Amino acid sequence: NEAGNVPYINLKGYILGNPLTFPEENNYKIRFANGMGLISDELYKSLVHTCQGEYRYEYISENNIECRQNLELYEKLIKLPTQKLLNEHHSASSVYCPIYKSYVVNYWVLEASVREALHTRKGTISEWKRCAENLNFTRTFYDVRPKHQYLSKKGYRSLIYSGDHDMKIPHHSTQAWIRDLNYSVVDQWRSWKVH
């Protein structure tokens, strides 16, 4: 809109679910894995002590053998044969979604009531895919917290949410980068439950 491009988009805000936001995101996976019982308290404490909060291999000294060994053990413990499990029972699509294999959403999003709730004009979307088969992009931002601050200052509202069982982007990291924005708390933390 600021560039004067048309059509003008009457954007009020944005919603992000489990967003990849800043470079240190992976450092929160260790805490999450321990909280979910995927690694022992002993391994967690050893990782915290030996790696000192940095769990990305490229930033760990090659001389820090104990940290690297702990990370190797961590990787073995959290590795699941998810692709094999998913492929054995689900073959409805040739598209491989790297995070979630969800076929129901394709039908759900095309429902008239859903389109109406999302204010999607008729005829604008004939087919919706959860994952693009060939998506070419170049990552230009590794830390988007400044972008969130910019949009907030412009008056755009945001709803950021995280699932409690998503290890790809743990809810701990989402809470951490939101805290980094230094906004005052308007509404206290609360859990969202589906019954």
From TrEMBL:
Q: What is the originating organism of this protein?
A: Ambrosia artemisiifolia
Q: Name one GO biological process term.
A: secondary metabolic process
- InterPro entries from the xrefs? AB_hydrolase_fold, Peptidase_S10
The entry's protein name is Uncharacterized protein
- Record family assignment: Belongs to the peptidase S10 family.
MF terms in GO: acyltransferase activity, transferring groups other than amino-acyl groups; serine-type carboxypeptidase activity
The UniProt entry, under PANTHER family, shows: SERINE CARBOXYPEPTIDASE-LIKE 19, SERINE PROTEASE FAMILY S10 SERINE CARBOXYPEPTIDASE
